[in-house]
């Protein structure tokens, strides 16, 4: 970790207060950033490299609405074959760089039948269905507690702030519980029914490990999902990654507008 931080510090002295993980479709959010400095994951010692198509791996430092930010363009998914320690490594880096607020964005399948593709959902809580926890292993008490509390994991003030920002912009917004499946296969129809019975509004393949680690480090967390599709079994059509990407891109405009407003208000 020391080598990672040292290398990043050599490239930029900017101290980010907000970290933003960009999910599918949001990659070009970085275009609006001022005083931009980009660092490719592959150049950062110790940093894992994302392999998913459309996830181009770099950290982007700069200013948005005069706030110092660090964007993660391209996240590391467990389903790519990485160890959990790699999946959460970038979040630990952001925390070490001084980030206080983490915004996690993702694409997710709608489980709540009131939802529609292209909806945005603020995550109010999550269900970790992977049966593993990213904090398994020795704990460094200096970084965070052995048994972190998960009350209000997604910071209620940020949920309210995001909801108010959406209202101000006239963007329809949902709130709900995100359930994490590791993927890469999409869920079965029976799993989606289970998810609904257990209280999930959306399902996805990211965000939860990152949120747990961010809480361990005491960060404030905001999570927002693009509902790119209805989950398996709800509609007659089979799921297709290309469609997920397409809807993600369609929604990107309003999502970026919302993110800008949120960053301004934080
Ligand atoms: N399931 C899991 N992850 C997803 C989905 C889905 O339906 N859509 C986008 N990411």
Automatic annotation (TrEMBL):
Residues 17-264 form the Nucleoside phosphorylase domain. It catalyses: a purine 2'-deoxy-D-ribonucleoside + phosphate = a purine nucleobase + 2-deoxy-alpha-D-ribose 1-phosphate. Pathway: Purine metabolism; purine nucleoside salvage. GO terms for molecular function: acyltransferase activity; purine-nucleoside phosphorylase activity. Coiled coil: none annotated. Pfam families: PNP_UDP_1 (PF01048). Keywords: Acyltransferase, Glycosyltransferase, Transferase. Its EC number is 2.4.2.1. Gene3D superfamilies: Nucleoside phosphorylase domain. It comes from the Bacteria. The purine nucleoside phosphorylases catalyze the phosphorolytic breakdown of the N-glycosidic bond in the beta-(deoxy)ribonucleoside molecules, with the formation of the corresponding free purine bases and pentose-1-phosphate. Cleaves guanosine, inosine, 2'-deoxyguanosine and 2'-deoxyinosine. Belongs to the PNP/MTAP phosphorylase family. This is Purine nucleoside phosphorylase.
